[in-house]
Amino acid sequence: MGNLIRLLLVVLACLHVEATLAHRAGSNCTTISKRREWANMADADKKAYIAAEQCLFKSPQKLNKMPGAKTRWDEFVSLHQIHALQIHSTGQFLPYHRYFLNVHQALLAECGYTGGLPWWDETKDAGKFSKAKVFDKILGFGGSGQGSKNCVADGPYANLQVNIGQGFQTNPRCVNRKLTDSLSSSCSAKDVATAISGKDYDAAWLAIYMGPHLYGHMALAMMDGDSITSSGDPLFMMHHGFVDKMWWDWQSKDLAKRLTDMGGPNAQDPAVGFIEFGGGTESQSKMWGKPTAAMLAVTPDPTAGDNGNITTLNHVLSSLGIIPDATVRDVMDIKGGYLCYEYV
Ligand SMILES: [Cu+2]
């Protein structure tokens, strides 16, 4: 190859990199929101975040369409309940929960919190969750629950009520959780490294879902360990910040490919249901009940935007009016413009 051609190729390659970077920076992502680990957040920021969360528990519902919702917090929990059978054990698990974090950010803003979302680096507390700073009773989420219902008895969420759950029911209950340190050992840095070693999205979402995501849930047993409404415990958002960061860290290993790599089913297979339990939705309904007619009436089409049963970049992500709908494409890049944040 002649030197001139070689030079031309180098110039073209540089131009391409520059164009890619220009696209990445995105004209709409100039002020990057910083998502800090809870342990590294300033006390004043922790207090502001907690105050906004408490405010959501005390604000009345606004949408007038979420079955059983009495408060703004209930509406947020209901959103997860209504989507439960399409956003777990499916390819849209990661993009939907990234969008769900963004919905949470918008709700916190309604209560005056405009800082970055905190997250919990569970790798640092693996095997000893109960010692983690997130469970501080003043500058944290309170500890493991107490009594026969495992109600969180100390901290800012003691004595607060959630009216959504268990499962597809809508009954009042306390914010509750039960910590099991031994299960938390599967949220270690080694486990995370394994979870994000998949070669394509199909491998990655499943490994993250069945790995530290699932073990974190089992170790915390938030809201009776109920997969459908565990979002009722504010701690859920800290765990899912950790899960979202896992996806981003996987994407960051090969951004050129992984900003567009999507797949997996867009709804659960009724014969399997939640893959971590097996047995199918029919047998799982004994534990959790079934979506009521009122819930089904507001449940979005799980295939919306996809033209089939596989999750695509055109898949529609809905919050039923809390914030405008988005697409999976919108949430692929955390600095793409629709989203603008980083984990620090
Ligand atoms: Cu979920």
UniProtKB/TrEMBL annotation:
SUPFAM superfamilies (alphabetical): Di-copper centre-containing domain
Keyword list, A-Z: Copper, Metal-binding, Signal
Gene3D superfamilies: Di-copper center containing domain from catechol oxidase
InterPro entries: Di-copper_centre_dom_sf, Tyrosinase/Hemocyanin, Tyrosinase_Cu-bd
Domain Tyrosinase copper-binding: 233-244
MF (Gene Ontology): metal ion binding; oxidoreductase activity
Signal peptide: 1-22
PANTHER family: TYROSINASE FAMILY MEMBER (PTHR11474), TYROSINASE-LIKE PROTEIN TYR-1-RELATED (PTHR11474:SF126)
This protein's name: Di-copper centre-containing
